[in-house]
Amino acid sequence: MVDSIILIENFENEKKINDIMKKFPNSKFFSLNYQTHKYLEKLNVDHFIGDRYLEKNDMDSADQNAVNLTQSWYDHNELKSFLIYKQTNLGHFLELDLLRYFIDIFKTIKIIQNIISKENPKNIIALTSINNFIKELTISKKINFSDIEAENLKKLHYDRINIKFNLKSLPISFNISRRKFQTIKHISEIFIYRIFNFYSKPSNSESILLLDFNPTIYENLLVELSKSNKNILLLNQRRPAIWNSKSLRIVKNSKAKILDLTYYSRFLKTSELEQAKNSLIKLQTMWKNENVLEEIFSIENISFWNSIKKSFIETCNRRFEESINRIMLLEKLFENNNIINILEWAETGQEEKEVLSVAKRMQINSIMLQHAMYSTAKIWDKFGRFLARFSYPLISDQQAVWGDLTEKYAISHGNHPSKIFKTGSPRHDPFFNHKSTKSDSGLVLLATTGASGIFTQGSTTDLFIKFDTFVREVYEVMKKFPDKKLIVKPHPQSDFINNVTELIKSIDPNIPIIYDTNLPELISKCDAVISFNTSTILLESIIMNKPAIDLQIEDWANENEITKMNAIYSIDKISEIEDGLRKVLYDPNVKNELEKNSKKFIDKFLVNHGTASKHVSNLLTSE
């Protein structure tokens, strides 16, 4: 039995922490996540890592509780009537965001329960976002509780936007709120798009709508579509379609026009605006059902509703208002344009779900294009509904997949064969068509796709520590090869947990960090590519006949077909990194074997090498 324990989650106030240490000198500190562990480590505060108290069944339970709650709370009999707008439940649009939110909550709750069970403390001092829940827990267990307001309300993952770019050779990475980003995006778009006459006006001509496509990645597809007699419309609701000179050139040289949803507000009737206003008022009434909400948001008969109430209501109100406004505008967009096909690649996002919801009501066909080398490991199956990984029947009317393996996997998980088209990958046409020259640069690219960070096993403190350790070891090993030079390209994913830029700078500020680049050109200059957990960049490497090294920091990575076919060199122990890198970089027999295996994998995984854009264009534009 310990006298007192201190639970800390995302609390960064050095003075208060020092005061607590003085007030409770013999207490045990527990960090509840990786960020807090790193902060306490920085302050040299001795502490225990909370999620080391989790067993595998605890992690599975946290994931399943989160999955169940994410897809059920908004369908509760006492709530769903408040949430229906234009025949759709607004809560359905938030599933992707809320999955991570609830997994984090259930994981934290289980950590705390296990710590209390093992330590049996007399006193608990809590600096967390779920202090109210902890208080209820201590009452039932007759433990003294001290509530220190942490002022760190839980937010949804996509309520922040991570911005990355290179200022000449200087890598810049920072976070900005979703609302502020959208304001800046809208103002900049008005300025740029009007100057270059990019805005689309209503048209009766047949049109193809692309949702949130990056022109620099899908240039070949835009070129092929521009050869058709269809209008090409870009609707980029999250990231702007144009943000640099290359994207500007691509859009300018194509027939593509950019949609501004706010333009369609002029078509809204007073009665429609009044209906939307009434729906928002009705939503406010829903939150008065305190007893129902306390029952829904609970675990083992203890409610955590009061812990999340403020942030959850504020977030939902804001997001529901966004959805209602966009649904009205999308209806007007579809009424005033002859859109025959919608192409998207992330159908579980809030914005995509809104578009698909309206499109289905208006009988407009939708196609989801596979955009990544998804994991086929069993652990991902339960999250298929939220991540569009083909392990669950999809929302879109049709699916365009990269090749035989994805088609087979999708059909085995309930997707209908008649809806699936093997087109290949348009984003990889430039890799197949790139004319590389012999290079003796000695460059080795480290592409830092980190821990998956979705489910509980993929977001533990030890896993993030493991990622950091693997990165540091790669750096130390590379110093032993004087003819090679390490360069780093961080993954586009957000730096909310593992800030790779900070990590690399702390290891060696002279390591080049590249955000903005022509990826085929960069890979062609490298002797090898290193990444994590069968990231898609490993596929891009072997397409260009470059040996690829996979650092498998999560167990599920070895279940993927690219690993089982030995198309990449897999390393899952830190002690094997030096030997593995040495073999791949210098042993011709290893290189030849990898090349032979990778060609077999590419033929099974991808069809229409270098011509996929043409096949997707034909699918979209054929009469």
Short account of what is shown:
The chain is of the alpha/beta class.
Structure notes:
With 623 residues, this protein is α/β, with parallel strands linked by helices. The chain has 24 helices and 23 strands. A 7-stranded parallel beta sheet has the order 12-11-10-15-16-17-18, with helices on both faces. Helix 8 crosses helix 24 (612-621), helix 10 (270-286) runs antiparallel to helix 12 (305-335) and helix 12 packs across helix 13 (350-361). The protein is globular and about 75 Å long. It starts with a strand and ends with a helix.
Approximately how much beta-strand content do the residues carry?
15-25%
Summed up, the helix count is 24
Counted beta strands: 23
Estimated structural class: alpha/beta
Radius of gyration: 26 Å
Instruction: Report the mean per-residue pLDDT as an integer.
Output: 91
Helix content class = 40-55%
Taking the sheet with the most strands, its summary is:
7 strands, parallel
* Global morphology: globular
- Spatial strand sequence of the major β-sheet: 12-11-10-15-16-17-18
- Gap from first CA to last CA: 74 Å
Uncertain parts = none
